[in-house]
Amino acid sequence: MNYYNYFTEVEEHFVRRRGKHMFVSPLDWSLIATWRESGVPLNVALRGIDKAMDTYQSRPRRSSERLSTLFYCHDSVMAEFAAHLESHVGEGSAESPQPAAASPAQEDTKAEGPGREAVCQFLDARLKEIERLLKKLHGREPASEAVERVRARLTEIVAGLQASAQPDAESLERDLGILDELLVTELRPVLPEGRLAEWEQEAKSELKVYRKRLPKETYQKILENFMRTKTHRYFEVGELSLFLLQ
Question: Tens of pLDDT along 120-167?
Fold first, then answer.
C-alpha cells in the first residue's frame, strides 16, 4: 500500500461508505492532515471510519438524511488509534506508532514510495505555480523575496533528485515542509484585509458542533491546516507535500 495516497484513500473510503458521491470539504481535508500528522496509520484510519459508519447506518433515520462530514468519524478513528498504540506497547516510543527498528514489511512500504520521475513531475508543477505567483507579487516585498527563496531552493531539490536513483522520501518531506511553512507564513500578510479573519470564522462556524468533543490541540491543528489550505488555494499554489502526490 502506497502511504502517499493517504488523503485520497481516506476520502474515497469515506465517500464509498457514505453511499453517495460528495466533495470532501477543506475542513475535512484538514482533519485528514491532522490524523496523518498525529501518526495514525492508514489502515487504522480506515478501520475507524468503518466502525463509525457502521454505527451511523445502524441508527434509525429519515431516508433523506446523509452524513456530510468526516468529523463524525473522528472519535472512532482516535479510539482505534489508541487501541493500535496500546497493542504496540514495548515495540517503540509511546509517542509514535512506529517501532524503533524498521521491520522488513516497513522497508517494503518505504520502497513503495513515489519514484524519482513522479516526484520531479509533482515538484515541477509546483515550481510553475510559484513562478506564476512571483509575477503577480512583483514588487511586493518581503513576500516576493520569500517566494523567490522557496523557488530557488525547490529548483535545487529537483536538480538533486534528477541525479539520484530513488528519493529519500522522509528527508524530502521534511525539507518540503520547511519550505511550505515559509511560503504560507510570508504570503499571509499579502492577503486582502480581513480575509484571514473571514476564513477563521468560517472554520469555527463549521467546527462549532465538534468543539467540545475535540481535544484543544486537535481543534487548533485542524484550524491551522484549514487556514493553510485556504492560503494555498487563494494564491493557486499546491501544498509542498509528497502526501498529496497522486
Answer: 999 999 999 999 999 999 878 889 999 999 999 999 999 888 887 777
Helix, strand, coil: what percent of the chain each, to 5?
70, 0, 30
CA 62 to chain centre: 33
How far apart are alpha carbons 108 and 19 in whole angstroms?
Answer: 33
CB under 8 Å to 63, separation ≥6 — which residues? Answer: none
Cα(first)–Cα(last) distance of the chain, in Å? 13
Surface-to-core class of residue 66, CB atoms within 10 Å of its CB (0-12 exposed, 13-18 middle, 19+ buried): exposed
Amino acid identity of residue 5, one-letter, is N
Residue 42: HSE in the Cβ half-sphere, 13 Å Cα cutoff: 15
Model confidence at 109: pLDDT above 50? no
* CA distance linking residue 172 with residue 170, whole number of Å: 5
Indicate the domain borders of the chain: 3-111, 116-244
Task: Read off the pLDDT band of 61 (50, 70, 90).
Answer: low
Specify whether the CB–CB gap between 24 and 11 falls below 8 A. Answer: yes
CB atoms within 10 A of CB 216: 8
Of the two residues 97 and 49, the one the predictor is more confident about is 49
Residue 79's pLDDT is what?
93
